[in-house]
Write a structure and sequence with these properties.
By secondary structure, the protein is an alpha+beta fold. It is built from 22 helices and 14 strands. The strands form 3 sheets. Strands 1, 4, 5, 6, 7, 8 and 14 form a 7-stranded mixed sheet that branches.
Length: 522
């Protein structure tokens, strides 16, 4: 569908004539009509061209509406449709047309993810041209992004096998009452036929209990269910959104969600964001770093073509020298080895230091400490050693390898990833009143070299200062994405849709940041 106002770009002038037009909508519209974004929208328009049926809405129109709705907290296709009917400014944007919820759903579901990623990267080009972008420190943080799938609507490996059996018997229904009754009747006949086979009768009765599961629509996703169940070695997957993972959310309950990883710069700008299927952050840094380097590559490519600055060498140098800062959720052998292997300057909060800090806060607020019964909780970790419960410094005296009589999981690991025994002993007990009955003269820890080295690095005052700046960056950005209720619920119903949704949510954040930094609309 070709609209004159979109062909000549007069939409922006019409909005500017309205004195009460929201600054964010002006910013979004100006951004959408920039040469950089228009180039991308033309690519999407060509994908949706069709000689049959009603012409598709211009992708620029849908982009502006979706971005603006995200900016005012609307994350629902039906509410987007309603907003287009009642919002006088969006009526100008849509030229009086009223896109349906399906138009917005198709925009997220079917748009090329790489093109939408470039829409987000366009914000980095703008920020870079204004000298607002730097890469000295990069902060990474993860949070749960809940999908539109019932936590109770799962399918297990046994039910996948039963689906195959139902297909062999030609008893799958198509969700109509007549078809379901035919399936039930067919299963009753099978029960009679297999009445002497206890196991088969048990299987048929299990099918009857969840008869709605055994339909042609769910069977069409059989390969996806099988692949994900085998890859993740899990007991079940979501029926409606099998790509999502079963994970513990920040609210303390389990739900189907993605692990959203956001990477932020020191001046509160999102560099990149991605959705992962790992239920925690312990093995995520390899994906995060790959995404950072891919984003930088696309960013430099777009900067060359559309940007004003020619600071490619500076960008590449900064990204090589950056400090990656992460919380204790990332403190794992897998993550530590990956940053070590690729010579990444990383600062990851050790779990022991995180627990000590959190317990201190709990004591100050009158709450019970975690790991209350731990035999090592009374030892305070300091630079080059520990402080014993009676205030004496304990230095590292020896490190020994474990000698396993049988094959062990550590055998195939690099030496700095193998657990070793670290021995710490008191330097001097002179004057201690408990010297005769002391049980704390020696402390033995089973840790890896990487664990010890990162902890030592973290105890350096210079690095502590770097880490303190993490909270305001990562928590502030995640808070923006989650909204007032503290939960980020994705509206997309496919993997491509939620990937596109995150890129557009990040686009809105960076445009908001652009307004704040510039103090004027772009």
């Amino acid at each position: 569908m070709e609209l004159k106002e979109y062909k000549d770009g007069s939409i922006l002038n019409k909005l500017k004539q309205k004195e009460d037009c929201p600054k964010m909508l002006l910013t979004i519209t100006n951004f959408a009509f920039s040469n950089m974004v228009q180039n991308l929208m033309h690519q999407l328009d060509s994908e949706f061209e069709s000689k049959r049926g009603r012409p598709a809405y211009p992708r620029t129109l849908l982009l502006i509406v979706v971005l603006y709705c995200f900016s005012i907290g609307i994350a629902n296709y039906t509410k987007m449709e309603e907003e287009c009917k009642k919002n006088k400014f969006l009526l100008i944007v849509t030229c009086g047309l009223k896109p349906s919820r399906n138009s917005f759903a198709n925009f997220l579901n079917k748009s090329d993810a790489k093109v939408i990623k470039k829409v987000f990267i366009a914000t980095l080009v703008l920020l870079n041209d204004l000298h607002f972008l730097n890469f000295v420190k990069l902060f990474v943080d993860g949070t749960d992004a809940i999908v539109r799938a019932s936590r109770n609507n799962k399918i297990t490996p046994k039910e996948v096998e039963r689906l195959k059996l139902m297909n062999e018997w030609k008893l799958l229904h198509n969700n109509t009452p007549k078809s379901i009754n035919r399936t039930i009747k067919g299963l009753e006949e099978k029960l009679e036929f297999y009445k002497n086979d206890e196991e088969m009768c048990k299987t048929i009765n299990s099918i009857l209990k969840r008869i709605n599961l055994y339909n042609t629509n769910i069977f069409s996703k059989l390969d996806i269910y099988t692949k994900i169940l085998n890859e993740r070695k899990t007991g079940s997957v979501s029926i409606s959104f099998p790509e999502a993972c079963w994970m513990k959310t920040k609210k303390g309950i389990y739900d189907f969600a993605f692990n959203l990883q956001e990477i932020m710069t020191e001046n509160h700008i999102i560099l990149t964001g991605m959705l992962l299927t790992q239920s925690n952050d312990r093995k995520t840094l390899k994906f995060v770093l790959n995404d950072i380097f891919e984003t930088i590559e696309l960013f430099i490519e777009m900067q060359r073509e559309f940007g004003e600055r020619r600071n490619y060498s500076e960008i590449q140098k900064r990204i090589r020298e950056h400090i990656l800062i992460a919380d204790s959720g990332y403190f794992s052998t897998e993550n530590l080895y990956y940053v070590f292997k690729h010579k990444i300057n990383a600062l990851i909060m050790p779990k022991k230091l995180s627990e000590d800090h959190n317990n201190k806060l709990r004591r100050e607020n009158g709450h019970e400490e975690k790991r209350k019964g731990s035999s090592k909780k009374d030892f305070k970790r300091v630079k080059n050693g520990y402080i014993c419960p009676f205030g004496r410094f304990m230095r590292l005296t020896n490190v020994k390898n474990f000698k396993h009589r049988k094959s062990h999981k550590d055998d195939s690991l690099p030496d700095n990833c193998k657990k070793k025994r670290y021995f710490f002993e008191t330097y001097s007990c002179k004057g201690c009143p408990n010297i005769e009955n002391c049980k704390h003269k020696q402390l033995t820890l089973h840790i890896t070299d990487l664990n010890y080295e990162m902890t030592e690095k973290f105890l350096n005052k210079r690095y502590k200062i770097h880490y303190k700046t993490r909270f305001s960056r990562s928590e502030g950005i995640n808070g923006f994405l989650k909204g007032d209720n503290g939960v980020l619920k994705l509206i997309g119903t496919t993997e491509n849709a939620v990937d596109n949704e995150i890129q557009l949510r990040n686009t809105i954040y960076n445009l908001t940041r652009l307004i704040n930094l510039k103090d004027t609309a772009y």
